[in-house]
Structures are given as C-alpha cells and as structure tokens.
Specification:
Blueprint lengths: L5 E10 L2 E11 L4 E6 L5 H8 L7 E6 L8 E4 L11 H12 L7 H5 L13 H13 L5 E5 L7 H17 L3 E5 L12 E6 L2 E7 H6 L2 E5 L9 E7 L2 E6 L4 H6 L9 H18 L1
Helix pairs in contact: 4-5
C-alpha cells in the first residue's frame, strides 16, 4: 500500500480537564472519501480541527504524506467565518496571494449568481459554502476537511457541493473527510465510514462491507436468541432490533426477516446504541 496521505499518531486533545481525544492512531489514503459520524460531543469536530492544524495537539503528531504542506489541506468549518467587510474579489485576491494561486476558477460562484463585487457579509449560509469551497478547490487540495455544513444549505446548493466533491475526488484524487449527521443525499460519496464515541472509534469499515454486516429485525415479540444487537427501538407494538455484525448463518437458523439498511439508518443505529450505553451507566 502507498504511503498514507494523512496519519494521526497517538494524538490527544482536551479542553481544560476534559479529554476529547486520547491516544488516537489512524491513517487515510490518497483519493479516499470518508465520513465521520457520531453523537453530539463525540469529538468529531475537534478531530477535524486537529487534522487541519487549526487546533494544537496536547500530544502526538498529525503527519502529512511526503511533499504535502498545510497549504494543500483545505478546511471548511461549520462556522464559515470569512472577512466580513470584504467583497468576494478581495477575498479571492487575498486567498490567491496566501496560497500562491495563479488562476481562480469562479465557475461555482457564477452558477449560484454571485458577483465578485458582492459583500461577503451579505452572503447566505449556502452561498458562503460555495464561495469557501471555490477558494479551497483553487488550491487543488490533497486533503479536504468538511465539518457539518450539509444541514445549513438548500437542496440545489447541496447537490452542487456534492457534485463538486465527487469531481475533486475523481480528477484531483483529493482525500475528502467530512463530518455529517444525515446521509440520504450524501451516501454516494463515502467509501469508508468512521463512527466516534467519546473520543474513540467504535467503527471503521468500508461502506459496502458495513452494509453487508448490518441488518434489522422487526417483530412483536422479544428476541432472546443472543443475536448481536447494537440498538433496540420501540415503534408502536413492534420492536426493531439492529443487528451487527450480521452473519448469514443467522438467517438460516432463526425465523426472522433480516432487512437491509441504508447508511442513514445504520449510523442512527450506532448513535442510538451510544445513547443507550450512557443511559445504562
């Protein structure tokens, strides 16, 4: 396997006495598309900021692949903070100067009707996302980190964003790592799924492998067969059991219908299981 494009080596990060990430080691490959999920407060945004060099580590190292500098790491925060009093052209000029960019591609901002004379402070959340993305894509980033912005934007801009990410993965071989909560529209992007719980990973799977190992059983009766259930939910008189890891032998020996799940329901099941653990503590 080639050298990782991004490596986390025993990293730890906390705020005051609270440890958010502790002794985490992880690798990402060039051109890989990854989704980070987990309940609120699990440490996802902190991890992304550490990867991008926005937050200082308490311990450990974030290591980029050979020849890659921080200028080739793009980061879109959910804060979407920019120079509010500038117009778009001033922001473009500044960004190109800092990152040594000779040519800025304004295709995306034109596509949503923005003018370079528009003030940044007048942009909507969706317009900010596309403007910010345009700036970062002009860097031809090796790694693009995206923090929980999907829920901020309307369906048209969301589709434009997702198409742009797929294009970057295909043409630039950009490694895209995004934090997200819903996956109905984004499911076609990730090839690897990471789920965090209290600063550590409880899941790290290729998406197709994950789908093959996850099933749901809906029944009116209590299941007492010792199946590996990560989450149970009541829906009226029915009980929903989320099974992981599912083994095909279960379907041969037990009288249940084992239903397949999309990524959205899979992630919700793992997060629901995380909340159940908290309640049982």
């Amino acid at each position: 396997m080639n050298e990782p494009i991004l490596s986390l080596i025993n990293i730890s990060k906390g705020y005051g006495k609270k440890k958010v990430i502790e002794n985490m080691t992880l690798e990402f490959q060039k051109g890989q598309s990854v989704v980070l999920a987990g309940q609120n407060g699990a440490g996802k945004s902190t991890l992304l900021r550490c990867m991008g060099g926005v937050s200082m580590l308490d311990h450990g190292e974030v290591r980029y692949g050979y020849g890659i500098t921080k200028k080739q790491i793009g980061f879109i925060s959910d804060a979407l903070s920019l120079f509010e009093d500038w117009n778009l052209q001033q922001g473009i000029d500044f960004h190109c100067h800092v990152f040594g960019i000779k040519e800025f591609n304004d295709r995306l901002i034109k596509q949503i009707g923005l003018n370079r004379k528009d003030k940044i402070k007048h942009l909507s959340a969706g317009q900010r996302v596309i403007y910010h993305l345009s700036l970062i894509l002009s860097q031809k980033p090796e790694v693009l980190l995206i923090d929980e912005i999907i829920h901020l934007i309307d369906p048209y801009i969301r589709e434009l964003l997702l198409e742009s990410l797929i294009e970057a993965i295909d043409s630039l071989q950009t490694t895209v790592i995004m934090v997200n909560h819903t996956f109905t529209e984004t499911e076609k992007i990730p090839e690897r799924v990471l789920i965090m719980e209290e600063g550590a990973f409880i899941l790290d799977e290729p998406i197709e492998q994950l789908k093959s190992k996850m099933r749901k059983v809906v029944t009116e009766t209590e299941i007492t067969d010792g199946m590996p259930c990560i989450f149970k939910k009541m829906t009226g008189s029915f009980k929903e059991y989320f099974i992981y890891p599912f083994q095909p032998e279960l379907a041969q020996h037990l009288p249940y219908e084992f239903l397949t799940l999309d990524l959205n329901d899979i992630v919700k099941a793992f997060i629901g299981g995380s909340y159940d653990k908290k309640r049982d503590q």
